[in-house]
Amino acid sequence: MRGSRGRGAVLLGLAFIGALGLAILILWPSPGSSGGHQPGFPLPLEPTAWQAYRVAQEAARAWQPDALLSSLSAQWQRTRGVWPTQTLWMIHVYSPSSGRLAVFRVELGRTRMLQEALSPYPLPTLAEDQWKVDSPQALEVWWGNGGSDFLARHSDIGVVLQLKPTSPTDNRPEWVITAIAGRQIQVMAISGVDGQRLP
To answer: What domain range is 24 assigned to?
Structure first.
């Protein structure tokens, strides 16, 4: 009984961080500054998740010395066939000693804290030493396994990329890519350890 309550608490904590991150992503406009595209691939790939997190780490540790990565995410919205030209990252970190969560925004090599709050429950954090697959590699797997076809079928589409723990009890990193076009949704999970597509 106690175990089920603990698992429920963790799940509620994950829902809390997910809702907070989604709200920030929706309310914050996609960047439009110059950036790079890989030939044949429409989404801007820089800064990568690794690069963005390294930029945010200093600010996160200044906020709380024991700050750990809980999740990170980026989104791109294609409107009338036009994609943004730069990636904006939202970095979620959690401090076990204080029980607080902070959200940092990373854009153009600059970091800004958007929000910090007391988390209602302890949040799982990523095993950073197992994070081997960066965002361009995750997007490449998605692109070659149905992502390019999905984008070709729709003009207005949104893509959300998130790195998170595999489960509340498994802190191995996992990429989740969600593409949305009207009522059509495509979701793909990719291991952040070896880049394999997950069931």
So the answer is: 2-198
Residue with tokens 């994070």: 131
- DSSP strands (E only) in the chain: 68-78, 89-95, 100-107, 110-118, 157-167, 170-181, 184-191, 197-198
Q: Is 137 exposed, middle or buried (0-12, 13-18, 19+ CB in 10 A)?
A: middle
Q: What is the DSSP string of 124-177?
A: ----GGG----HHHHHHHHIIIIIHHHHHT-SSEEEEEEEEEEETTEEEEEEEE
Bridge partners (DSSP) of residue 179 are: 159, 186
Cα(147)–Cα(43) distance, rounded to whole angstroms? 12
What is each CA distance from 172 to 12, 132, 163, in whole angstroms? 19, 10, 10
Q: Which of 178, 185, 180, 139 is nearest to 157 (CA)?
A: 180
User: For the chain, how many structural domains are there in total?
Assistant: 1
Is the entire prediction scored with pTM above 0.85?
Answer: no
What does the pLDDT look like over 4-14, one tens digit per residue?
455 444 444 44
Q: What is the pLDDT of residues 134-179, one digit of tens each?
A: 999 999 999 999 999 999 998 889 999 999 999 999 999 999 999 9
